[in-house]
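Bug #77: duplicate submission created two jobs. Keeping one. Sequence:
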Amino acid sequence: MDLPLRIIIAFSIVGVGVAIGVPVLIMTMKRRRRDKRRRRGIKDYNSPNNGTARS
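Kept job's structure:
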């Protein structure tokens, strides 16, 4: 099961991209959600309901 060096390098490049990209994506999505809630006037960013019951 000897993998060629270029396949190992390709997988490591993909792994580094995923390892960097996933946390950045999570931070960006949290920031966008927080910004949307701030624009709507919701002060508590962590609670899913935030006391804004709509009827």
